[in-house]
Predict the structure.
Amino acid sequence: MQADITLPANAGIAPPRPTWLVRDLRSDHAGETGAVWIYKAILAISRDAEVRAFATRHLETEQRHLAEMEVWVPAHQRSRLLPVWCVAGFMTGAIPALLGREWVFHTIEAVETFVDRHYAEQVERLAGMPAFADLRDLMETCRLDECEHRDEAAESVTSPGGPLLRAWAAIVGTGSAMAVEIVRRV
């Protein structure tokens, strides 16, 4: 299996990265990019004070995650489809922001439910790899932050939503999983 060698910020020499890890990191970087754009869209459109406060707090977290991922994912290993993920993230934030607070909170709950599972799988996979302990710790920190976003969104929901909202949330969750599969390759 081919491995790429890169230098993380906190080490002089990094161990070779397995191809699966390079692909996972690419998906994490693209996902954090998309998340930044979700919150930017919400802030661009929503006038609801609670939604805006929620989006402002979580945008700061996502920007920090993105900056941390940029340390681990050199430019040549990032997705060539980043502009697509920016647009997809913006639309994932803009559509619910146009439709109201319940839509925003259900959307974030759906996205972050997927992200929790995605990061948890990676954390588990890195558990037996002491050379990547710092990366594993970062992924676990990101996962816990995303769980907080999911839980805060779930607490802010006041109704289960109608069939259209539930369908939208399912599309968002499925779309997130499909995006990861694409970005791992491109």
User: Anything to note?
Assistant: The radius of gyration is 17 Å. Strands lie at 3-4, 17-18. The chain has one domain: 16-183. Residues 126 and 132 are 7 Å apart (CA to CA).
